[in-house]
Amino acid sequence: MHFDAFDRYHEKSSFLHGLDPRVKVLVTVIYIVSNTLLPDAAWYSFVSAWIFLIAANLLSQLGIEYTFKRSIIALPFALVAITVLFSIPGKPISTFQFLMWDLTITDAGLLRFVSILIRSWLSVQMAILLVAVTRFPDLIHALEHLRVPAILTTIIAFLYRYLFVLTDEVLRLIRARESRSAAVAGQRSGGGVAWRAKIAGNMAGQLFLRSYERSERIYNAMLSRGYSGHLYTLNPHEMKQRDYFVTAFAIAAISIVQLIGRL
Amino acid sequence: MHFSPVPLHIPDGFLSIMVSIICWVITIITLGIAISKTNKALGEKQVPLMGVMAAFIFAAQMINFPVAGGTSGHLLGGALAAIVLGPWAGMLVMTAVVAVQGLLFQDGGLLVMGANILNMGLVTAAIGYGLYRSAAGRSKVVKLSVAGVAAWLSVMAGALFTALQLWLSGTSQLGIVIPAMLGIHALIGLGEAFITVAALSFILQVRPDLLGEGSESAKGGRGWILAGGLIALAVVLISPLASGDPDGLERVAINMGFIDAGLDASYQVIPDYTLPFLGETALSTIVAGVIGIFVVGAVVVLIGRGMRAKA
Amino acid sequence: MPVTHAIKNFQTFECDGEVLTIKDLHFSYPDGRVALDGISLKLCNGDKVALVGPNGAGKSTLILHLNGILGGRGDPSTTLKVNGMELTRENLPIIRAMVGLVFQNPDDQLFSPTVFEDVAFGPLHMGLPEDEVRARVDVALEAVRMSSYKDRLSHHLSAGEKKRIAIATVLSMNPSILILDEPSAGLDPRARRTLINLLRELPNTMLVSTHDMALVKELFPRTIVMDEGRVVADGSTMEILDNEKLLTAHGLEKP
Q1: What share of chain C is helix, strand, coil (3-state, %, to 5)?
Q2: Where do the domains of chain C lie, and which CATH numbers do they carry?
Q3: Mean of the per-residue pLDDT values for chain A?
Q4: Does residue A118 sit in the same domain as residue A246?
Q5: Mutating which of A9, A148, A208 best tests the B interface, going by the most B Cβ atoms within 10 A?
């Protein structure tokens, strides 16, 4: 597979791309917290939060529809919230039959369901925007600055680096399996489920051992360059005046969104 | 491409602030312990090892095998990671995997990441390792079968925790979400169990030293057996209870002040069902019962084994 | 027991500034397999030496000894010195800065997300101040003609580019001796040519383990042949490549 399938970053020189990654992480998290705090059916707040998102989209030069198109990813999960349609007592809106049950959608249930979806949909889009305008290594630096323990950021950095190498290896294994999964005409190919699971497990075991051995070689390469148990990093980011200004402005705007919802 | 084979990655917006924060607190405390334990117990060599292992789990989740009717078996990896790396390192590795899935691919939200790490990284590792540890010193067949049960239960426990969080957030109804989540994951867990067992048996064959005496895998204390057993017990006790008597649990949750986000004062506090929901049908009781019996049986056998191994 | 051939022995030569001195180095793996069976050799300042021999001859094992990743059991008869400094546990950090080891697979060598972080790793872990680290990164990338790649992500690079960055990651430590393991393996002809030109330009003392005999002929005046854990020949490349009996005995081919 080509690395593009994993890269969510889009090279541009927009206002958002130029911000310090800490600012972007912080504002994204505050935005998501704010969405989660909004009460059900706070329509004006939802709309103003959406405007905030659109403004961010515009500042990213990626186009208004960029995050919209990619936000479908969270849709399937909406299924788990479907029960609130019927379970929250309120005025019945419509009743229909599903298999053996009579289901009644209530107004309160509908409001809650739609509110959950909107909150999620806005939040997911902001998270999509975050990785589209921030290179992942910069995101890791931001986490370091935000006091995430070094051992975790280091594991994440390694994961990001070797994600591409190991998924390539998996795809080679899968291709090798497929090219040998021949079938004789008229006969069902492959053994039973247990057999197929065993093949998959062998692949996982194989991949594990290769990864294990690779980690030993990497360790040697690290030792050769002076690693002795403690990792040092240079942090290329420094907060500029603009970064502070943007943070303050974003927090003020999000507070207004909250205020609108509480009035 | 979809990166989350197991539908446990909760997106932002589906958990209430309170549930999100409580999950973060539990996760941060557990990770804090994990970090101090790994710093103490593991050598400098473990840093690249854990990093590459995180990439391994991520990549291994892409390995699938066709089951039937277009569905396929997948690996979540929490139990496997904990078994081969030891519980604390396994938790850190799974945390990195969940974090990257959420940050880079939006597979799971950011505010709810504490919950996702808890469900998919910490609970799965604890139960997977705890049960596996109880088979220490036993024959290869026993070890592998226990690992299979542990892997299956790790997925079930993750699903149960997810379901409970959704319910406490007022997003799902208890009587439906628990049987639904556990029902789906009883099947998904089979894929997990199969792949985990096959991968472990491959490793035992080619590099037995990685799982033998003195390996990280063997170093976890006996306390893990207790932790794994307790989580298994929680799965056993809560699932049938929640499915059979959702009102009871709901009342407890409301008394404890959890469920208020969705229920304004104008609403009735306890919804009385005008409809026969899954939670009250014979089907769900049967499903829960079967699961319960299976789990109870497994736990009893495992605890018995653990005690015998100790004696 | 491998045959030893009478090739003019460089070990007896005097030179100004011995960069690497090895006397009677032995090593066995934990399972008892003997990997190095009395290695002695000497590299002078500015030497460019090829290390050839069949797989399993002990080349990689030898290389891993040169900066103390393997070995370290204080055998009194053994000497391993870099720039006259004995390799001991205390000297290890200094030795590792002096010996620049480039591994065969650049994916193992480049373990950081970005090129900058990888090239800065060595100098940072040597404890250099930030300005110095940045300056060294610039110089090292310039030396491998990759200055414009500083902010690139490692997984976006081609095999040849990765190889050159891997060399930069050790050049940034200003090593006295550069050691490369199979530098031309897996490169397409164009990338290989670029690499050869780069190796020719670099002024560093060099020890290069390789199967690429054409590369040996083109770049290195001196060649060391290893087999079964021993140095079986150490002399001028022209002489060794003309000695067909020697080449055949150790599974090598004249380019």
Answers
A1: 40, 25, 40
A2: 10-101+177-249 (3.40.50.300)
A3: 85
A4: yes
A5: A208
